[in-house]
Amino acid sequence: AGTNEHLSLFHSHGVFVLPTFRDAYGFAALEAMNFGLCVVTTEGAGISSIVAAAGGVVTKSPNEAIAESLR
């Protein structure tokens, strides 16, 4: 995605979901938080402690738990 499309996507959504167990840094989640989006990620992702401290949602598994957190 180009820069304008990238910015447009962040501005047009209210939540960012990063279902991962192996993303050590989570830069995309940090960027989403910078745009004011609520972030949902999985326990064990490198960014999970920062997401939790910022009031986001951290789940144990990337399937039904994430779907439930979005309701």
Provide an overview of this structure.
Helix content is 41%, strand content 17%. It contains four helices and three strands; from the N terminus they run αβαβαβα. The protein has helices at residues 3-11, 27-34, 48-53, 64-69, and strands at 15-18, 38-42, 57-59. It has a three-stranded parallel β-sheet. α2 (27-34) links the parallel β1 (15-18) and β2 (38-42).
SSE map:
Layout: H1 3-11, E1 15-18, H2 27-34, E2 38-42, H3 48-53, E3 57-59, H4 64-69
Parallel strand pairs: 1-2, 2-3
Provide keyphrases for this structure.
71 residues, alpha/beta, three-stranded parallel beta sheet, 3 strands, globular
Quick take:
With 71 residues, the chain is an alpha/beta fold. It has helices at residues 3-11, 27-34, 48-53, 64-69; strands at residues 15-18, 38-42, 57-59. Helices cover 41% and strands 17% of the residues.
Largest sheet: 3 strands, parallel
Mean pLDDT: 82
Report the principal-axis shape: globular
- Taking pLDDT < 50 over at least 5 consecutive residues as the criterion, the unreliable ranges are none
- By secondary-structure content and strand pairing, the structural class works out as alpha/beta
Taken in chain order, the helices and strands follow as HEHEHEH
* Portion in helices: 40-55%
Strand content: 15-25%
Rounded Rg: 12 Å
Task: Compute the separation of the termini in Å.
Answer: 28 Å
Tally of DSSP helical segments:
4
The largest sheet has its strands arranged as 1-2-3
Number of strands: 3
